[in-house]
Specification:
By secondary structure, this protein is an alpha/beta fold. 37% of the residues lie in helices and 14% in strands. The chain binds pyridoxal-5'-phosphate (PLP). Pyridoxal-5'-phosphate binds at residues 57-59, 83-84, 86-87, 130, 156, 158-159, 182, 184, 195.
Amino acid sequence: MDRPPVPLFDIRLSGAETASVEAALRSGWLTMGPRTDRFAAAFAQHLGARHAVALSTGTAALHLAYLAAGVGPGDEVIVPAITFVATASAVRYCGATPVFADVVGQDDLGIDPAHVAALVGPRTKAVTVVHYGGYAGPIEKIAALCDERGLALIEDAAHSPSANPTSGGAKLGTWGLAGAFSFFSNKVLGCGEGGLLATDDDDVARLARSLRSHAMTSGTWDRHRGHAPGYDVVGLGYNYRLDELRAALLDARLPGLEADIAARRALVRRYREMLRDVPGLTLPYRDEDVDHSSCYVMPTMVADAGVRAPLRALLRARGVQTSVLYPAIHEFSAYRRPRQPPLPRSERAARTQLTLPLYPHLSHSDQDRVVAAVEDGLAQLAGVTRQPGARQAVPA
Ligand SMILES: Cc1ncc(COP(=O)(O)O)c(C=O)c1O
C-alpha cells in the first residue's frame, strides 16, 4: 500500500486554537480590534520589545520598516541575495534600490558582513539582516557597522520568532530599528497571512500604527466604541491591518510556540545526526547553532549542483516533498541588472540548496523515510549501490 507523502510542512491545529477562531467569528467583530491588540501585546512581551504592531503580512512589516528608516527614492538598502524576494521588493515599494550582498557560503546562508561593509556607499540608507531558516545572521557585526556608518539596521525575522544570536542575548527581531515577522502559513508561528513589526522606538511604532490603516487618526474599532467621532487622514497610508480571525489564531498559538520550536530542534538534531556523513551532502550551520535557532526549515546543501534536480525527482517519486530556499534574487528576471557583479557564493547556494520536510509533529518514521530516500537517491546518482539495511552509501 502506498504511504501518504511526507509534505515539506504541515499544520495541525488544536481544539483550543480552532475554538479561539470560532469565538472571534461569533463575536461579530471581524476586522482589527481587541484580539489583534491582545496578540500584539503578548508577542511584544514574549519578544522583549517595547512595541509590536500587528500587520497583514511580513512584507507589509518590511515595507513599513523601510519607510520608518526614511528609505525613499534614490536610496539604497543592502540585502542578502539569498532570501525571499519580499526582503528586496519592499525596498522597491519605497522607490529605492536593493543592493545585493553575497552570503557567507555553503556553511552559513546569512549575509556576509565583510561584503556588506564593502558595499556601503553615499546612497546607502539601511542594511537588512535576514535570519535564514531561523539561524541568527551576523547581527552584532552589522549593528556595529550600522552604528559606525549612521545606517538603519532592519531585521527580516520572518523565519526567526523566539530565536537568539548564537552568543545569546536579546531575541532576534529586537536588535535594529525594526524587526519584521511573518505569520504566513508555513512559518514557525503561522496563521495563513499575517505579519508584525517589532520596535523599541516610539516614533517607529507610531508611524507603523498610523500607516497600517491609511494614516487615519482613528480606527473603526475606536469609532465603534464611541471613542472617536470621526477621523482625519494625515499621510499616505495603506491597508496593512491584521483581522480578528487571524489574530485569534495567533493569540491561541503563541503559548505553544516554545514547545513547537523545541520539537523542531529535536528533529533537526536527529536529521543532523543521520545525515552528517552522507556522501554528496553537507549541512549548513553547526550543531550548537540549533540550540538558538527557531528551526524554521531543515536546510541541506548538495555537493554537486547537477545532482539536485534529479535528486528532487527521486525524492518526489518516493513521496518526499522538498524545496529550494532560495533562488538568488539578483538572478530573477525582474531583478537582473547589466552591471550586477557576480555573487559567487549566493549563486552556488541557489544551485545546491535543498530543504527537507520539517514540522513539529513530523514522525520519526517519516523522518527516517526522508533520510533513506536522500541516501538512496544520492547513492543512485553517484552510481553507488546502497547495501540493504545500511544507513550509509558505500563507496564503490
Ligand atoms: C525571509 C522572508 N522575508 C519576508 C517574507 C514575507 O512574509 P509574508 O509572506 O508574510 O509577506 C517571507 C515569507 O514569506 C520570508 O521568508
